[in-house]
Amino acid sequence: MKAALVLETGKILMGESYGAIGEAFGEVVFNTGMTGYQEVLTDPSYSGQMVCMTYPLIGNYGINRMDDQSEKAQVQGFIVKEAARNPSHWQMEKNLSRTLAQAGVVGIKGIDTRALTRIIREHGVLRGVITTETEHLSELIPKVKAWLVPADVVAKVSTSEIYTLPATQTVKSSQHVVVLDFGIKKNILHAMQESGFRLTVVPHTTTATQILDLQPDGVFLSNGPGDPKSVEVGIETIRGLMGERPVFGICLGHQLLSLALGGDTYKMKFGHRGGNQPVQDLNTKRVTITSQNHGYAIAEESLEQTPLYVTHRNLNDQSVEGVKHRELPVFSVQYHPEAGPGPSESLYLFDEFAQLMQEWRAQHAT
Ligand SMILES: NC(=O)CC[C@H](N)C(=O)O
């Protein structure tokens, strides 16, 4: 069955249906990962977006039981060049096209995803619609232009109930971390459980007082979808946590931390999405290749009016990738040290968090 991708510029790309039949609007972004499509599909940070995979062959190892990053597919749409016809892997349970169809994700295949990526790189992120109804495509252009990214995306993906997870690694004294969930990826939870942390995951609307009542050793600020400035409740909560406990934030959590402390964020032209972003630790000068998925970033000049300073930088475009508080045990990174998908060479950051919590506990022992 035919399908089309209509962009807000009026450009129409024809392909074939891949996944669910229907029509889906979203913000079209590209991801440069060669593998990891299952994690991309299920990463809540992609809520509201249609992902174009730049790698030309997708689906070749199917879908397995372990790689889901949340309970369901989160992308609005999925755009690939060639969809693997005969996927094969010993852990494969389903193929990708059936998974998309069952999840109701409208996808399209047969698109020159590298050409589409060049369009996005030139114009910046674009709104688009994928449709299997290909009769009157030009009528969709004004509709795409009128479509807005939903403002309440975090509310859609955050947990509605508090839940706990045990540490999966035995360490000398297990640390209790409250996770403020703005749309967390499972791999972050796993990485923290593996670091010996007991977790209490709380909804994004939880207040600082409610969090402190749980008597955590530290608080973690998760990743999540959308514009950080629209997550006002989270920003308020983070302000209330400063000086009370060690805090570590990733991606959206990192952006919210800077907003909470008087910094600013901006929307990038086309963002960083993929598993090959070089980041330098400015202290050790060490460079790690990181996994990323973000379209907003901290405005570096705005940090002057905050107690934060830059600790990590992206070597492709020099953007801010990590910050630390000058006095308090508070730090955050824009990238994904838990990987999934992507390299796991930044896992050491969870150890740094453990270290901060240990020092805090020693100082505040009664
Ligand atoms: N992965 C994330 O947490 C993404 C953060 C934010 N929604 C952005 O796109 O920049």
Automatic annotation (TrEMBL):
Residues that hold L-glutamine according to the record: S45, G224, G226, L252, Q255, N293, G295, Y296
Q: Where is the Carbamoyl-phosphate synthase small subunit N-terminal domain?
A: 1-131
Keywords, A to Z? Answer: Amino-acid biosynthesis, Arginine biosynthesis, ATP-binding, Glutamine amidotransferase, Ligase, Nucleotide-binding, Pyrimidine biosynthesis
Q: Which SUPFAM superfamilies match?
A: Carbamoyl phosphate synthetase, small subunit N-terminal domain (SSF52021), Class I glutamine amidotransferase-like (SSF52317)
What's one Pfam family here? Answer: CPSase_sm_chain
Q: Which domain of life is it from?
A: Bacteria
For the region CPSase, give the residue spans. 1-176
In the Enzyme Commission scheme, what number(s) does this protein have? 6.3.5.5
List the catalytic activities from the record: L-glutamine + H2O = L-glutamate + NH4(+); hydrogencarbonate + L-glutamine + 2 ATP + H2O = carbamoyl phosphate + L-glutamate + 2 ADP + phosphate + 2 H(+)
Q: Can you cite a GO biological process for this protein?
A: glutamine metabolic process
Q: Cite the InterPro entries for this sequence.
A: Anth_synth/Amidotransfase, CarbamoylP_synth_ssu, CarbamoylP_synth_ssu_N, CarbP_synth_ssu_N_sf, Class_I_gatase-like, CPSase_GATase1, GATASE
Pathway of this protein?
A: Amino-acid biosynthesis; L-arginine biosynthesis; carbamoyl phosphate from bicarbonate: step 1/1; Pyrimidine metabolism; UMP biosynthesis via de novo pathway; (S)-dihydroorotate from bicarbonate: step 1/3
Q: Which residues form the active site?
A: C251 (nucleophile), H336, E338
Q: Which PROSITE patterns match?
A: GATASE_TYPE_1
Molecular function, one GO term: carbamoyl-phosphate synthase (glutamine-hydrolyzing) activity
Question: What family does the Swiss-Prot or TrEMBL record give for this protein?
Answer: Belongs to the CarA family.
Provide the function of this protein: Small subunit of the glutamine-dependent carbamoyl phosphate synthetase (CPSase). CPSase catalyzes the formation of carbamoyl phosphate from the ammonia moiety of glutamine, carbonate, and phosphate donated by ATP, constituting the first step of 2 biosynthetic pathways, one leading to arginine and/or urea and the other to pyrimidine nucleotides. The small subunit (glutamine amidotransferase) binds and cleaves glutamine to supply the large subunit with the substrate ammonia.
HAMAP family given in the database record: CPSase_S_chain
Subunit architecture: Composed of two chains; the small (or glutamine) chain promotes the hydrolysis of glutamine to ammonia, which is used by the large (or ammonia) chain to synthesize carbamoyl phosphate. Tetramer of heterodimers (alpha,beta)4.
From the Swiss-Prot or TrEMBL record, give the protein name. Carbamoyl phosphate synthase small chain
**Record organism:** Desulfosporosinus fructosivorans
Give the taxonomic lineage as stored in the record: Bacteria, Bacillati, Bacillota, Clostridia, Eubacteriales
Whichever gene encodes this chain, its name is carA
